[in-house]
Amino acid sequence: MKALVTGSSSGIGRDMARYLNSLNIDLILVARRKDKLEELKKELDVNVKIIEMDLSNEDNVYKLYDKCKKDDIDILINNAGFGLFGDFIKTDLDTELNMIDVNIKAPHILTKLFLQDFVKKDKGYILNVASSAGFMAGPHLNTYYATKNYLLKLSMAINEELRQLKSNVKVCTLCPGPTSTEFTKVAKGNFSVRETPSEYVAKYGIDKMFQGKMIIIPTLMMKLGIFGIRFIPYRLQLIITSFIQHRKTRKK
After folding, report:
1. Would you say 25 and 48 are in contact if contact means Cβ atoms under 8 Å apart?
2. Segments of 111-243 assigned E as strands
3. What are phi and psi of 230, to 5 degrees?
4. How many domains does the chain contain in total?
5. What residue numbers bound the domain in which 238 lies?
6. Which of 74, 94, 61 is nearest to 28 (CA)?
7. In a designed cystine with 55, which of 69, 81, 106, 165 is the match (CB 3.0 to 4.6 A)?
8. Each residue of 93-143: pLDDT tens digit?
9. pLDDT (tens digit, 9 = 90+) per residue, 241-251?
10. Domain containing 46 — which CATH number?
11. Which residues contact 103 (CB under 8 A, 6 or more apart)?
């Protein structure tokens, strides 16, 4: 088997690459930081192809597909993404639009193009890495929450379409809570709760992907939290989420 993993230079993507390597699955690793990819490649035993690519550029997303469409990919993992803490009236618009390109447009394009190939073969897995944020609205981390809502709901809809087609292709969504990655550094904030190790999230996500689970939530605490929010009125959800996100914002 062969897997294509975006955002694989650090965090969950890097640990997914390591776990897939332990399963003897060949890899195509994609990220902006070539040096990090080369470091990772040295520790892996399987056949590894690295591609330095900025997926905020739409043309690059199509180029990535063109580079890989003949590689007989079995697994696509859309992991690339980032966030930005702050009030909507104060955050940088260009950064937010860049986030939308990386968090929404890139996985949308790659999912569509590879899914068409997978359906023709009637096999394959797509794992879209969203977030527990995909179940809520997020004051002070607003655009990030919105992008993860998009990715989660899109993936769920595709999952049902494939079920109705009786296709053997699986589209799954990983929705972790706070995880020990570079996310907070990039987003200019910090988590006020204990973070789950990215190694655990990566392994759990891939194991459940192979089981064909539609929504993958790694920890019991997060499962209970997501289950509980359905009973909380929207306004109260917003107040609670706003309080939690506000605590994460670093004071300058």
Report:
1. no
2. 125-129, 170-174, 179-180, 196-197, 215-216
3. -65, -15
4. 1
5. 2-248
6. 74
7. 106
8. 999 999 999 999 999 999 999 999 999 999 999 999 999 999 998 899 999
9. 887 776 665 54
10. 3.40.50.720
11. 81, 82, 144, 147, 148, 150, 151
